[in-house]
Amino acid sequence: MDKISLDKEMILDATEEIIRRFGPDKANITDVAKLLKVSHAAIYRYFDGKTALWNAVTERWLSHLHAPSNEILKEDSPADVKLSNLLESFVEAKHHSAINDPEMFANYIKLAQSSTEVIQKGIEEGINSIEGIIEQGITEGIFFTESPHQEARAVYLATSIFIHPNTFEDPDRKQNIKSVINLLIRGLKNSNR
């Protein structure tokens, strides 16, 4: 492949393919270079090393994973409905990925344990999305809080347990998610705090 036709997206696509083929523990830059029929040096022109490349792949994967959530933010619906939909979307996206794309989900878990930068960015984006909906709810007179950001962080933390693989096999998982979300929304609606 000539240098001109190689770009970051091609490298990211190839890296995802390699991770899916070999798993995150065995995949490496050599495999990516071989798949693209380029040298290691060609990859290093775009990424500073394996960590940078794997971070970029995970960041892109998370962005695709959360695309449906971004559509929910655009909905013209009351804040309580929108928040419920968003939280269910967050937890179900990871669950579906673990089932349908286990190698990339394993890569995400591995990265979460070793490099928090990409994961922290995703968490902050999630919290900011929740905060925006809470602020919408305050404007609509549905939610009552003086600290939307702190409430958004609490809501995120309360539901984040459901993205952990240990919860995926629980037969009551869906009901537990609904119960927690309903409890959180009732708390936000409580004007007697």
Describe this structure in words.
The protein is an all-alpha fold. It folds into two domains: 3-47, Orthogonal Bundle (Arc Repressor Mutant, subunit A), CATH 1.10.10.60; 60-189, Tetracycline Repressor, domain 2 (Orthogonal Bundle), CATH 1.10.357.10. Helices cover 74% and strands 0% of the residues. It has ten helices and no strands. The radius of gyration is 20 Å and the shape is elongated. The mean pLDDT is 89. It comes from Clostridium chromiireducens. Keywords: DNA-binding, Transcription, Transcription regulation. Residues 28-47 bind DNA.
Number of helices: 10
Q: Name the overall outline.
A: elongated
CATH T-level fold name of the largest domain? Tetracycline Repressor, domain 2
Largest sheet: none
β-strand amount: under 5%
Alpha carbon gap, first and last residue: 63 Å
- Total strand count, please? 0
**H/E element order:** HHHHHHHHHH
Low-confidence stretches: none
The overall average pLDDT, rounded, is 89
Helix content: over 70%
Number of domains: 2
- Give the class-level CATH name of the largest domain: Mainly Alpha
CATH superfamily annotation of the largest domain: Tetracycline Repressor, domain 2
What characteristics describe this protein?
Arc Repressor Mutant, subunit A, elongated, 193 residues, Tetracycline Repressor, domain 2, mainly alpha
Quick recap:
Helices cover 74% and strands 0% of the residues. The protein has 193 residues and is mainly α.
What topology does this entry show?
Blueprint: H1 8-22, H2 29-36, H3 40-44, H4 50-65, H5 67-74, H6 79-100, H7 102-114, H8 116-140, H9 148-160, H10 173-189
InterPro entries: Homeodomain-like_sf (IPR009057), HTH-type_TetR-like_transc_reg (IPR050109), HTH_TetR (IPR001647), Tet_transcr_reg_TetR-rel_C_sf (IPR036271), TetR_C_27 (IPR041478)
Domain HTH tetR-type: 5-65
Keywords: DNA-binding, Transcription, Transcription regulation
